[in-house]
Each structure stands twice: as C-alpha cells, then as structure tokens.
Amino acid sequence: MADSPLTSIEFWKVSEDLYVLKIGKEPGKKKLDNVRFKFLTDSNTTIFDKIALVNAMGWDSNSKFKNSEIFLNKLKKEHLNSIKKYRKQLLKAPPFSWDNLEFDDNGDILRNDKNDKHFIQGIFYESVDDFDKKYDAVESLWTPEDIIRSHSDYKGFGVEDNYTVYLYLLAMDNYWDASLVFDVLDNFIDDEGNVISVTYNNSDSKEAFDFIKMLVSTQSLFLTKEIDCEVWEEFNKIRGRDYYSCMSNLSIRKSLLKSYDYLKIYSDNCEEVMYDINTTYCFRNVIHATQNQQVTILHYPLFIYGELTIYDQNDSEVFKFIIDGGDSVGLDISNYPLGSYRIQMINTQTEPKTPYNLDLIIY
Known about the structure:
Blueprint: H1 5-8, H2 18-25, H3 34-41, H4 47-57, H5 67-91, E1 102-103, E2 109-110, E3 119-120, E4 123-124, H6 128-134, H7 144-155, H8 159-173, H9 178-186, H10 203-225, H11 229-236, H12 250-263, E5 272-276, H13 277-280, E6 286-289, E7 294-298, E8 305-311, E9 317-324, E10 328-332, E11 339-347, E12 354-362
Parallel strand pairs: 5-7, 6-12
Antiparallel strand pairs: 1-2, 3-4, 7-10, 8-9, 8-11, 11-12
Helix pairs in contact: 2-4, 3-4, 4-8, 5-7, 5-8, 8-10, 9-10, 10-11
C-alpha cells in the first residue's frame, strides 16, 4: 500500500518554501502542531505551499493520530475564541444609539469613533444579542463544513483553501480508504465539481483543489482497480479552469509532471494513449507508449490546420501527415522499433507558424 498515488507522489519537492522542504526531509508522518497549523491557515501562505506541506508531513499506516481531526479541532477552537473576543468587545461598546450612526449614499452604516466597537469583521451589530443570533449554532452538531466555513468567515478569506487542506489531510490519514474521502467530498461539491456556495477567489485555489481531487480520485481507482487504465484516464482528465486550457500555476504544472512520472505506468493497460496539446503541453512534452497502443494527439481547438512529422533517432523522417480541418491525429506505431522519436507539429493557421515539439518514447 506504500506504493500508491497518494503516498508515492512527493510534490513537496517542487515547493521553494524552506519550511516545507525542511519538513519533507524529516522521516515518518509528522503531527500537525501549532506552527504547521498556523502555516496552513495563514492567508499569506500560497495554497500550493499549504498542500505541499501536507504532502511533506507524510503518511503512516500505523499512525496513532489523525491530522485532519487535529486540524478541525484547532479551527473550532480558534473560532470559539474569536466569538468570545468579539462578545467581550460588544459588551464594552457604548450603548447603541441612532444618534451615533452615519450613513453613506447607499444607506450603509459608516464606521466612526462612537460606534467602532459595534463593528465585527466589517459587520455592524446593535448588541450582543444581535451578535448571538448569527452565531447560535450548537457546537456538538457542527459538521466539518460548518467548522471550516465559520473559521474562514472570521479570518476574512474564502473557505475553499481551508477545505482543500482539510480534504487532503483527510485523504492522507485514510489513504487506504479513499471512499471515506469521497463521502465527505460529495457533501461539499456540486455536479460540476465546484465547492457548494463558494466562488473561487483565484485560479490558484481552483487548480490546487482540482489537483488534490485528482490524487484522491486516482487513489480510489487504484484501491478498486489496482494497475488499471482507468487510473491513467482519471489523471489525464485534469485541465485548466477552461475546458480546453492548461493549468496556469507553475508549481501545479511541475507537480503534474511529477505525477505523470509515477502514473504513466498505469497507461500500459490502455488500448489508446491520448495526448491533448491544449491541456498537457504546458507541463510535459513527452508521450510514452508501447507498440500495441494507438497514440492519439488532440490539437483542436488550438488549431485544425497544420502538419505532423515524426523523426527517428537519426533525425530521419519516418512519417508525415497533413492536418486539414481535423480534431486529432492517430498514430499507428505497431511497426516502429523501440526507442525515442521526435514529433514536430506545426500550426499553419498562425503567422509565423507555431511549432509544437514532442518526444515519443516507445518501450
């Protein structure tokens, strides 16, 4: 079980954060202490470095602690402490008076010296009772979503990064049972794979979420299918924010290349190896295939007119194809000797003509 997508892809090595690199080099599974918790919830920490730290903290099949539970408990504690702090602030506030209020052109209450203590995270409260009406949830009934959303509201940044971190911690705690992760996932995402009631504040958050979702998905398939084509196909689905685009975050791109180095073995059982220039060229320009596999290179909608040429190890042309309005090019490599080949695709729709250079490894 140590050899699996969740446990074997060490993308923490992509991070340039010295703390992440330090933790990754330490042996064994590391417990979520206060320093690591602060790193994971700090709005100044990039979402990539947050998931990289979780990756660096590792896994252990015999672990006596679960970092996902520690994470939720610390979030809850911080949230409850914030409630106590803000209640004290309101108790010390001057009595509410309409005379102390000023309004802007939109009718919203303006903050001033007389009513300053009535504002909590930019929201005006008349009294403690008014504040308690919003935060009257029964603590024992809180779900992970309640805890994450409440903490994120108080911290003033989106819920999605904390959720991505929690999901990944949960997966690493239960890497042998990915169905548990998907039970939680189903409660958070809609049919299109977006976090419910959350708007991603930037593409980095969306891409980090999709990357972790890919790792969890491939792990789940591995547990049920083992070395199977479906694992590879799940990895090959990942793409940028737009359907026909690549990931924009450079660290995620590098992590995808590390993922490919590990997951490409799963493609051995596929009849077809698909390479999509639109979504893949930005992080890898190599295709691995066996002689009994069909290689298909998808170039639509990037371009539909061009040419494809294959060169052997001696740089001799062995195949040429004119792309004349099609979506993809299929390659029959059954008679190609094992070894390395160079593929050059040219988009003739642009001026100057745009080349795409790929390596084809037949093994």
